[in-house]
Amino acid sequence: MKQEDRQKQHADVSRVLKTREEVRAYYNKIAPIYDLLAERSERPMRELGLQLLAAAPGEHILEIGFGTGHSLVQLARAVGPHGRVYGVDISEKMVRLTEELLQREGLADRAEVRCGEAVELPYGSESQDGIFMSFTLELFDTPEIPRVLVECRRVLRPKGRIAAVGVSKDNPSDPTVIVFEWTHRHFPNLLDCRPIHVRQSLQDAGFTIEEALVKRMWVPVEIVLGRNLP
To answer: What is the pLDDT of residue 193?
Structure first.
């Protein structure tokens, strides 16, 4: 795809209408009931993303936007006692819930979670073997998505991989996508994210796409595996 075509494609993605502080306040508010709202629909998609990432014993894996911590638990089990998982999330209450979950599961010694921003990841360059994001990339405003992915490439080791799960904009005529975007524009407090071009965003950021699936909740979802190659 030509550069001008890529720019045109991403230009059709709606903007995020909430400020960062509004987003933080929203997720702090819904943290105690987040699983009731989203776990049933999101979990099958998240599981497919974790399968693509295929975290292995001894690896260092970062999750961006870990929410209530279910993926971090699975990642911590996958990397084993000699590996380590890291998590960054904008919500202090999500951090607290995840710390409690890791403690209950006996995995706290393998994990380090913190409240922070993905546009400036608090991790060293080439420090991670893999990155996982599930229904997170579409929460960032359109100009921020490339910045987040540049940060992902910075912290990934050469040949490191990223698995991203997100609501897809690739079929803009899909009725559910149209309804999703209309709701986002008119009721941003109800629906704070919107469909994006997941695969194309990773590819534009320089990742080599190794696998890309399109599945369906009530909206189409892209599940993409990218590799950090020179």
So the answer is: 86
Query: Is 160's pLDDT higher than 90?
Result: yes
First vs last Cα of the chain: how many Å apart? 20
Question: Which pLDDT score, from 0 to 100, does residue 1 have?
Answer: 45
Residue 26 near residue 50 (C-beta atoms within 8 A): no
Which top CATH class is 3-227?
A: alpha beta
Query: Going by C-beta distance under 8 Å and a sequence separation of 6 or more, which residues neighbour residue 140?
Result: 16, 118, 119, 148
Residue 46 structure tokens:
């998240």
d(CA 12, CA 172): 9
Q: Judging by DSSP bridges, how do beta strands 156-167 and 208-216 pair with one another?
A: unpaired
- Is the pLDDT at 75 greater than 90? The verdict is yes
Measured N-to-C along each axis, helices 92-104 and 20-30 cross at an angle, to the nearest 10 degrees, of 40
DSSP string, 39-68: HHHHHHHHHHHHHHH---TT-EEEEES-TT
Amino acid making up residue 14: S
